[in-house]
Write a structure and sequence with these properties.
35% helix, elongated, 503 residues, 19% strand, alpha/beta, binds ligand BES, binds zinc ion, 14 helices, binds manganese (II) ion, 20 strands, nine-stranded mixed beta sheet
Length: 503
């Protein structure tokens, strides 16, 4: 997907399709639309007069340029799509992302492979912010996963391959926003592609190979531990989860040096469980196929490291992805087994389906030993977070209030919103074990919180936060820039958080 800012007034920008935002209550005579209305011979005025276009969030009107004929050579848009975006005072960057996503969906319906998006009429948003949001929304919307499916011969789908952003403003800021948005969307789309690959293809070694390929292209430092190396390090929690599998586990470490030499790093950790059958505590068959998405956190960390490198962020950042399968077999870890961890704490495995916290335990310990400035993990960790928050909020927990606020704010700005749950001491005793230092589950009540309590035991004295993305990393494709399946979340959130630390 090519995204660029073109410094041309919308009415003289030649394009197959130009999308323009309309806020509720605006008229065709407002400055943002007047020149375009003239160029269209008053078509916008007529759309308003008909009452079809009121600027409500669901309003859409497709208009045709006066010279829209096949051989027409004049400058200006051939088609103009007015998109209602609701009340002017409520317009934010997420409004722009969705609007650009709608523009791409309309292009797909029309069979048009290019779309232009006007950045005018978006209220008081800054130039860089609205260009970035439009680039993100358009490039995210255009993505699809078609590696494993033949194209429809009768009706081949249209791929939107390029997006031009147009409109008034500081052209340097608008161009910078377009470039950043394209980088962020490409990284999130990379995460979506990794998520979408099924467990038989996206194994731990596949994830590692993809991380190595990406790092090679970016000149990013990458290290991959195999099981022998993990055993030598003492990472017995990851190894315990992986014991039931033929596929070997991997620990992927990506190192980016954008800050001063000995500046403490920011660490991103992502759960890379490539298929979660539950192990001996096997899951029910219905819906088990969606457990290929149990590596969503790992995919987001790999994607985020790509974007951070491409953006040249001025910080040191380390990405850590523990990756394994969780399968039942004669060699698998069993309920009641007590395992060692890298931190030295013993864990009684009551339920082998609570495996994410085990592989994360060793990864967090490994990260904490790097003395990070802060460490954030993301994981499809608990079904409980779906019960608590549904599909619209990431569960956020951690041990440092300032860090939590940083993440809440980054979530608002990226449209990958978080909601805090308490990590009070009182919950910790649900993990008391009679046999080991702690057990891996804390019962039905507050299961997302006790899962986070478990992780907290392995972060040493690091400032740390945890994002439970079990309800938000994939789904039925509710937004214009999503499709059914992988969402790539929280790739943009992680990058925005890292960038926010350098502003
Ligand atoms: N990967 C699952 C969590 C999950 C559930 C992700 C639904 C996406 C959608 C995790 O490994 C798991 O199985 N968690 C269990 C833990 C329980 C056994 C304590 C859960 O939350 O049900
Ligand atoms: Mn599980
Ligand atoms: Zn899992």
């Amino acid at each position: 997907m090519q995204v660029r800012y073109v410094d041309t007034p919308p009415q003289s920008h030649t394009t197959k399709l130009l999308a323009c935002a309309v806020t509720q209550g605006s008229t065709a005579s407002i400055v943002e639309l007047a020149a375009l209305d003239d160029a269209l011979g008053g078509a916008i005025t007529r759309a308003f007069a008909s009452g079809d276009m009121k600027g409500r969030k669901s309003d859409e009107a497709l208009l045709y340029g006066a010279d829209a004929g096949a051989d027409a050579g004049g400058a200006g848009p051939r088609r103009v799509l007015l998109l209602g975006i609701g009340k002017a005072e409520e317009v934010d960057v997420e409004t722009v992302r969705r609007m650009a996503g709608r523009a791409v969906r309309a292009a797909e319906r029309l069979g048009v492979d290019h779309v232009s998006v006007s950045l005018d009429g978006l209220g008081k948003l800054g130039d860089e912010a609205r260009a970035q949001a439009a680039a993100e929304g358009a490039a995210l919307a255009a993505w699809r996963f078609r590696e494993l499916k033949k194209a429809d011969e009768e009706e081949p789908a249209t791929d939107v391959g390029s997006v031009d952003l147009v409109g008034a403003g500081d052209s340097d800021a608008l161009s910078a926003g377009a470039v950043a948005g394209a980088i962020l969307a490409r990284a999130e789309n990379f995460a979506r592609t990794l998520q979408s690959r099924p467990g038989n293809l996206a194994t731990p070694s596949h994830l590692a190979a993809e991380a190595e390929r990406m790092a090679g292209a970016m000149a990013l430092e990458v290290t991959v531990f195999d099981e022998a190396r993990m055993a030598a390090e003492g990472m017995h929690a990851i190894l315990a989860v992986s014991r039931g599998s033929e596929e070997e586990a991997r620990l992927i470490v990506l190192r980016y040096q954008g800050g001063k030499k000995d500046e403490a790093p920011l660490i991103l950790v992502g759960k890379g469980l490539t298929f979660d059958a539950g192990g001996i505590s096997i899951k029910p068959a219905a819906g088990m196929e969606s457990m290929k998405f149990d590596m969503s956190g790992g995919a987001a960390v790999i994607g985020a490291m790509q974007a951070i490198t491409e953006l040249g962020v001025k910080a040191n950042v380390v990405g850590i992805v523990p990756s394994s399968e969780n399968l039942p077999s004669g060699t698998a870890v069993k309920p009641g087994d007590v395992i060692q961890t890298l931190a030295g704490k013993t864990v009684e495995v009551i339920n082998t389906d609570a495996e994410g916290r085990l592989i994360l335990a060793d990864a967090l310990t490994y990260g904490a030993r790097m003395q990070p400035a802060a460490m954030v993990d993301c994981a499809t960790l608990t079904g409980g977070v779906v019960v608590a928050l549904g599909h619209h909020a990431i569960g956020l927990l951690g041990n440092d209030e300032e860090l939590l606020v940083e993440l809440l704010e980054a979530g608002e700005r990226t449209g990958q919103r978080c909601w805090q749950l308490p990590l009070w001491d009182e919950y910790r005793k649900q993990l008391d074990s009679t046999t080991a230092d702690l057990q891996n589950i804390g019962g039905r009540e507050a299961s997302s919180i006790t899962a986070a309590c478990f992780l907290a035991e392995f972060v040493g004295d690091a400032r740390w936060a945890h994002l439970d993305i079990a309800g938000t990393a994939y789904g039925d494709g509710g937004l214009p820039y999503q499709r059914k399946g992988a969402y790539g979340l929280p790739t943009r959130l992680l990058v925005e958080w890292v960038r926010s630390r350098t502003r």
